[in-house]
Write a structure and sequence with these properties.
Order of helices and strands: EHEHHEHEEH
CATH class: Alpha Beta
CATH topology: Rossmann fold
Strand order of the largest sheet: 3-2-1-4-5
Number of domains: 1
Bound molecules: magnesium ion
Shape: globular
Largest sheet: 5 strands, parallel
Length: about 150
């Protein structure tokens, strides 16, 4: 099971420009990490647009060391040689699955940008941009992980 993880509007409410002002919030990351510890078979791939501005080392910094070791990479940057239909976030995720030869692996995307998903909406656990990874999103993600255990 692969979790494609967005940051803004998920790990913290969407808001100010957090990349350039040096401010880092990640207030909901502990909640997500606690859930992930219950499901050690879940790998993480970062789908946040932060991947286009920051080095991998910086991207991984907010994560606890045990969770960091479960991060398998980042999806390809948008426009990075991706042809249609690999243009939106869904497409970038599908491209990652193909590049890594794991198209049959179950996956879920935790994201607030539901409009970035089309054919694969059923893989999406959506967060409200201004509420982030709240109780509802957490319960839904847990259900997806539990479903993958069966
Ligand atoms: Mg987002």
């Amino acid at each position: 099971m692969i979790l494609f993880l967005d940051f803004d509007g998920v790990l913290h409410p969407e808001g100010e420009d957090r990349i350039y002002d040096g401010g880092v919030d990640f207030c909901f990351l502990p909640r997500l990490e606690a859930l992930l510890r219950e499901f050690p078979f879940v790998k993480i791939v970062i789908s946040s647009s932060w991947r286009e501005h920051l080095l991998n080392k910086t991207l991984l910094k907010p994560f606890s060391s045990d969770i960091r070791t479960r991060i398998a990479g980042v999806i390809p940057p948008s426009g990075f040689g991706l042809q249609p239909p690999y243009r939106n976030r869904e497409g970038e995720i599908l491209a990652w699955l193909q590049i890594h030869d794991v198209v049959d692996e179950p996956w879920v995307a935790l994201d607030d940008a539901y409009w970035q998903f089309d054919q694969c909406k059923d893989h999406l656990v959506v967060c409200g941009s201004f509420t982030g990874f709240d109780d509802r999103a957490s319960a839904e993600l847990r259900a997806r992980f539990e479903g993958a255990c069966q």
